[in-house]
Amino acid sequence: MGLFNVTRPAFFLLTGIPGLESSQIWLAGPLCVMYAVALGGNAVILQAVRVEPSLHEPMYYFLSLLSFSDVAMSMATLPTVLRTFCLNARNIDFHACLIQMFLIHSFSMMESGILLAMSFDRYVAICDPLRYATVLTNEVIAGMGLVVIARSFVTLFPLPFLIKRLPICRSNVLSHSYCLHPDMMKLACADITINSIYGLFVLISTFGMDLLCIFLSYVLILRSVMAIASHEERLKALNTCVAHILAVLAFYVPMIGVSTVHRFGKNAPRYIHVVLSNVYLFVPPVLNPLTYSAKTKEIRRAIVRVFHRIEM
């Protein structure tokens, strides 16, 4: 049986860094370190929130959801990224590629929804602190988490089927070391209008709306903070938002860069695609646990207690 059947290849070929294939094995060390930080750091935060009663609050429940999505994103990409860079094993089965594409996009959307939920948490905590405990009950938090997860999987459920219906016969070489919908649909030798429209609809209706709502929440937060008479109290209120703002920037800036290059940067050098996609892949899971550990003293104390118990 040949490489191609009537409608699609038996497998895709993943790509590391164009032009540096012979030396990209040297990146295996840094990649392993980044995966270790992402998986280890987020696992520690999950454990700290689980065992520390002082962290059984809405803000930290949302943080544990964020850590879960970061761990899931890292696990979804780890096999193909390390195989590509460490072993130069570039092939991935067609259906395995579809599954990985679905998981990456789903966990990415999940992270966007969690960041929106966290901005709502900050809004209530700063703008209406007296109602914080009654608004963000455990039932409400669980409901928000279920909605975020359900939205991700339901919205993106059509993507694998939209790819499967396309005859892919131009090439079977992908631009990254993992599978993405825009990358796969460009290999089709048929009209991809439906895929493109649906992808744009998902991008605007979920990620775009999430970012807009996060922006509006911070407009309201700033307006509330500016009404505080004490300069010290203003800084204290804003300081509770720093880690979340950094998490939002770490997630959305690379994502916007990747989306822009995929849609409008057809003539951009290939290494630009590779660099942006890997920043999008690695920065949030690596940076989030470091940021929250550095900026949140309650998390630091809980982590110290967790390691102290382990040593005992």
UniProtKB/TrEMBL annotation:
<dbReference type="InterPro" id="IPR000725">
    <property type="entry name" value="Olfact_rcpt"/>
</dbReference>
<keyword id="KW-0297">G-protein coupled receptor</keyword>
<keyword id="KW-1133">Transmembrane helix</keyword>
<feature type="transmembrane region" description="Helical">
    <location>
        <begin position="25"/>
        <end position="48"/>
    </location>
</feature>
<dbReference type="GO" id="GO:0004930">
    <property type="term" value="F:G protein-coupled receptor activity"/>
</dbReference>
<comment type="function">
    <text>Putative odorant or sperm cell receptor.</text>
</comment>
<keyword id="KW-0716">Sensory transduction</keyword>
<keyword id="KW-0807">Transducer</keyword>
<feature type="transmembrane region" description="Helical">
    <location>
        <begin position="241"/>
        <end position="259"/>
    </location>
</feature>
<feature type="transmembrane region" description="Helical">
    <location>
        <begin position="140"/>
        <end position="163"/>
    </location>
</feature>
<keyword id="KW-1003">Cell membrane</keyword>
<comment type="similarity">
    <text>Belongs to the G-protein coupled receptor 1 family.</text>
</comment>
<keyword id="KW-0675">Receptor</keyword>
<feature type="transmembrane region" description="Helical">
    <location>
        <begin position="94"/>
        <end position="120"/>
    </location>
</feature>
<dbReference type="GO" id="GO:0004984">
    <property type="term" value="F:olfactory receptor activity"/>
</dbReference>
<feature type="transmembrane region" description="Helical">
    <location>
        <begin position="209"/>
        <end position="229"/>
    </location>
</feature>
<dbReference type="InterPro" id="IPR017452">
    <property type="entry name" value="GPCR_Rhodpsn_7TM"/>
</dbReference>
<dbReference type="GO" id="GO:0005886">
    <property type="term" value="C:plasma membrane"/>
</dbReference>
<dbReference type="GO" id="GO:0071396">
    <property type="term" value="P:cellular response to lipid"/>
</dbReference>
<dbReference type="Pfam" id="PF13853">
    <property type="entry name" value="7tm_4"/>
</dbReference>
<keyword id="KW-0552">Olfaction</keyword>
<protein>
    <recommendedName>
        <fullName>Olfactory receptor</fullName>
    </recommendedName>
</protein>
<feature type="transmembrane region" description="Helical">
    <location>
        <begin position="271"/>
        <end position="291"/>
    </location>
</feature>
<keyword id="KW-0472">Membrane</keyword>
<dbReference type="InterPro" id="IPR050402">
    <property type="entry name" value="OR51/52/56-like"/>
</dbReference>
<feature type="transmembrane region" description="Helical">
    <location>
        <begin position="60"/>
        <end position="82"/>
    </location>
</feature>
<dbReference type="InterPro" id="IPR000276">
    <property type="entry name" value="GPCR_Rhodpsn"/>
</dbReference>
<feature type="domain" description="G-protein coupled receptors family 1 profile">
    <location>
        <begin position="41"/>
        <end position="292"/>
    </location>
</feature>
<keyword id="KW-0812">Transmembrane</keyword>
